[in-house]
Amino acid sequence: MSFNVALSGLNAAQKDLDVTSNNIANVNTTGFKESRAEFVDVYAASLLSSSKTKVGDGVLTAEVAQQFSQGSIKFTNNSLDLAITGNGFFATVPELNSLETSYTRAGQFKLNQDNFIVNSQGGHLLGFPVNADGTSASVSLSTAEPIRIPTASGAPQKSSEVDIRMNLPAGDSFISSAPGNFDPEDPLTFNHSTSVTIFDSLGDSHIMTYYFIKDDPSVNPNEWMLFASVDGKPIDLEDPAGGGTNPVGGNISGPLSTGGGLTGARLVFDSSGDFQSQIPTAANGGIITSDFSNHLPNGADTSQTIQIDFNLDPLGPNPNEPTQFASNFEVTSLQQDGLAVGRLTGIDIGTDGLVRATYSNGTSEPLSRIAMVNFANEQGLKQVGNTAWKESITSGEALAGEGGSGTFGTINSSALEQSNVNLTSELIDLISAQRNFQANSRALEVDNQLNQTILQIR
């Protein structure tokens, strides 16, 4: 019996050595979780045996239990390197249409040839679909799908509105030849000008310029005339009255140097410099250009118009309105809502797992939200290698959720979770297991010597 007891001790010591050696071997494996050999004694007694004198029957390996404590975080320069701080696992599938889900804490992800986010084994990272505002459309593992980074450029958006804030100098003199001889190429025919880059429906850029001309103070005090051009070519401002005349008297359309006529607009201030009205006034409160029929030869939408919004507030002075003070000409805001064609410039991943693509035209687009998975019993997961686990009966069903919500940890981009192996502790355990092995070997040797002695009795 003592021979079997010593043999079981050798087997247990060998198992302890194996587990410790495996932990040490994976000390630099990203996302690795150390294991611990757990042993129980063996005790068997019959109904009539005396428990007071019964000796145990050895030792047995009960379980090699994984320890899912947090590993330290190592920061990198790759935005697709992901680390989980707290509970949870990443979910991956080996192929696009596969339902064979594996779970991992190793976040060494990259793009494959089809721009899907994958790990070094080719497993596709799963994510939840998201709405345009970045909220999750569904938080269910059954709806999660492999995350793909788009290769297409960001779609252009044609300009439809320009917002202007400025100060027009109250002391400017009236140009007697204006507006009849207004010429956008002759700075002597207007007082001031400013420009903004706008975009057509194809994302092509154009320079839209606004020209301000002080009206005759003896006729229309505190009033300015406004004209516009696109790429240096004058464009009419929409005139609800028709005929190219100002609705409140006074023709503000004058013959250009080309011999044509141009319809402009009028900005009216009061004696304190407050913006009072704009003429003509569209139904939505802005001054609108005519269509771009003669300004877009590149095949873009020629029905495009642009509303020039001066933020008129009929209730009184407003900081967003233009002013007419005794100060220099100053443009404090000049913004438009169009977008050029954008190329993909980067991928941002938030702590909640939201994957957002950013484009060179200043826009960003939410793509997906990285699926997080947790289990009632992490130690019940079945190891499958490559720092991955699979669901088992003892682990319970996979519970999906978003990073940072409930019991789920947060996701750190440009970071990796290192192995949770403590090398110092493992070396000490290695020495302890070695001593245990030597002691059981000695017990086995003594048993063998006793057996030899008994066999030699005559």
From TrEMBL:
InterPro entries: Falgellar_hook_FlgE_sf (IPR037058), Flag_bb_rod_N (IPR001444), Flagellar_basal_body_rod_CS (IPR019776), Flagellar_FlgE/F/G (IPR020013), Flg_bb/hook_C_dom (IPR010930), FlgE/F/G-like (IPR037925), FlgE_D2 (IPR011491), LlgE_F_G-like_D1 (IPR053967). It is found in: Bacterial flagellum basal body. Residues 413-457 form the Flagellar basal-body/hook protein C-terminal domain. GO terms for cellular component: bacterial-type flagellum basal body; bacterial-type flagellum hook; cytosol. Gene3D superfamilies: Flagellar hook protein FlgE. GO terms for biological process: bacterial-type flagellum-dependent swarming motility. It comes from the Bacteria. Keywords: Bacterial flagellum, Cell projection, Cilium, Flagellum. Pfam families: Flg_bb_rod, Flg_bbr_C, FlgE_D2, LlgE_F_G_D1. This is Flagellar hook protein FlgE.
